[in-house]
Amino acid sequence: METPDPIEKVLILVVERDPHIKKLERFFLEEAGYRVEFADDGLQGLERARALIPRILVTEILLPRLDGLKVCRALKSDPATKDIIVLVFSILFAEDRALEAGADAFLRKPLDDARLVDTVTTLLRERSEAGS
Amino acid sequence: MKRLTSGNAELDAILGGGFPANAIHVLMGAPGTGKTILAEQLCFANASPDRPVLYVATFSEPLQKIVGFLQAFNFAKLEKLGTQIVYEYVGEDLLTAPERFPQRVQELLTRHRPKIIVIDSFKALADLMPDRSAWRRTLDAVAGMLSAYDTTTFLVGEYTSDMLTQLPEFAVADGVIDLTREERGSRDERFLRVLKLRGSDFLAGRHPVHINSDGIQAYRRFLTPAAPPEYRPVFERLKTGISGLDSMVATGFLRGTATLVAGPSGAGKTSLGIHFLRAGVAEGEPGLLVGFQENPNQLIRALGSLGSEHGALLGPGKFDHFYTSPVEVQIDHVANEITRRIDSHGVKRVVIDAVSDLEQGAGDHLRFRDFLYSLTQMFAVRNVTSMLLVEATGLFQQQGISGHTVSYMSDNIILLEMLLGDDLSRTIRIIKSRGSKHDGKRHPLRITQSAVEVGG
């Protein structure tokens, strides 16, 4: 039987198809103390988000089967998933489109570990303060 | 677009503002062309506490050698070593398992989190791979990892131009900088060429490069300047200060024109040029003598023979002297330096002594023609009046100045001759003055203790 973590780690679901970015995201987010799960395409990302209800979903826009903005809209329009924080992390210059789709924040690639971890931490803190 | 400085302002200008960030650049060239120096220079120019640099040494460039030679350069601020710039040697790991290099890169990225990463030599790594497909897989994984992270990569290698279409490194590269060294007579000249710079403008063509204690110094290939919006042709006549000369061309040469002064050795070309500049200073017009003939000491003597005290006359903003040995003439460097001095010191008059030295430095006729056209255009748009001195072929009387590209690029042509008789007598005549009526007759030219005069 597995020993549970003494402190429950915050779950982040990353929807990303680039294997190199996934490796780096896993390394830096886990190093910062988060638990990381992945989905390889938009449809799988939506399914896993509904199943896992992560605190944050980090998604690229350019994804197979369902793009990241549609994933974002679907999550934000569903009462069961609307509280999942969505961070759009894309190669595209698409901040306006991401925010319009309901995303809570936007970051542009390439991956800057300090910016990614800071953004995730800030989003979690702001949500926590808003809820308290 | 974010950019990184190369550590040299001229090279940054060639690159359209510096190396595009978050890209993979290849620095290629034969051994001794300056690849590693350029890589080191840009590392030191960019490294800071929040912009760490990782220098990965493979086989061909052992770490001891890279760091050892580095200390000869002024840019190498040693306090950055080990903190802002970290060196890693991966040669031994690669010998046993070259295909593990992508994992090694990931380890290095996550450990050091560099904003710049240099891999030197990257080609040596490819040479270790058992076959081409193994190298392609490795390269794809390394390039993918380097592109995913917020870093700018420089892959250094002894690549040659024939490899450009053969090796996959050049397909994944966003930028390719080719460094070359060419023999010219008994000396070597170095050049740099940007072959590719994805998503960015750059200055195409071959740009000369010097390597000295400051590192790589590039010089933009001299191009025809675009006329600035405020440029308007000027119809003002200039007072050359040479008695009798101005009245031979309407009431003087047009300001902003280029005048070819041709004549045999001893005919008075340099004296005429020096007096033209000296008279300009007296009129409040700063001058520049670009000399390949008289070194600074010889110029002081020449000024003395014309009755000038050099101390008050010479200097930037007055009578500026830019001397380069004719053996070392690098035409793009000369042109850029002339432009810089004109712009810095408000130079209004320029004398080039002699154009044939520039021709020697150009190497080929076509390049010289383009260069000279660009140079005279640069003078024109800046409204700088110039004299271009040319050594004629005949010893006493001019045999003709055909063959000199400079003759049809000049607005005016002055011909100096020496006539044989009991005494040596010098003469001057104007054989061309574009847009002006001129006196084409031969006139005596006198060089006295204090002046150069026409007539009498």
What are the key terms here?
heterodimer; A: 132 residues; alpha/beta; five-stranded parallel β-sheet; 5 strands; 45% helix; B: 456 residues; Rossmann fold; 2 domains; nine-stranded mixed β-sheet; 15 helices; 32% helix; 25% strand
Description:
- The complex is a heterodimer of chains A (132) and B (456).
- Chain A has 5 helices and 5 strands, in the order E-H-E-H-E-H-E-H-E-H.
- Chain A is an alpha/beta fold and 132 residues long.
- In chain A, strands 2-1-3-4-5 form a 5-stranded parallel beta sheet, with helices on both faces.
- In chain A, helix 2 (42-52) runs parallel beside helix 3.
- The model of chain A has no long low-confidence stretch (mean pLDDT 94).
- With 456 residues, chain B is α/β, with parallel strands linked by helices.
- In chain B, helix 5 (101-112) packs parallel to helix 7 (132-148).
- The radius of gyration of chain B is 27 Å and the shape is elongated.
- Chain B starts with a strand and ends with a strand.
- The chains are: A alpha/beta (132), B alpha/beta (456).
Quick summary of this structure?
The complex is a heterodimer of chains A (132) and B (456). Chain A is 45% helix and 18% strand. Chain A has 132 residues and is α/β, with parallel strands linked by helices.
Largest interface summary = A-B, 15 and 13 residues
Query: Mind describing the biggest β-sheet of chain B?
Result: 9 strands, mixed
Q: How is the main sheet of chain A built?
A: 5 strands, parallel
Structural class of chain B: alpha/beta
Q: Which residues of chain B form runs of ≥5 with pLDDT under 50?
A: none
How much strand content do the residues of chain A show?
15-25%
Identify the CATH class of the largest domain in chain B. Alpha Beta
CATH superfamily of the largest domain in chain B: P-loop containing nucleotide triphosphate hydrolases
Predict the CATH topology of the largest domain in chain B.
Answer: Rossmann fold
What does the radius of gyration of chain A come to?
14 Å
Beta-strand content bin of chain B: 25-35%
Spatial order of the strands forming the largest sheet of chain A: 2-1-3-4-5
Count of helical stretches of chain B: 15
The span between the termini of chain B is 66 Å
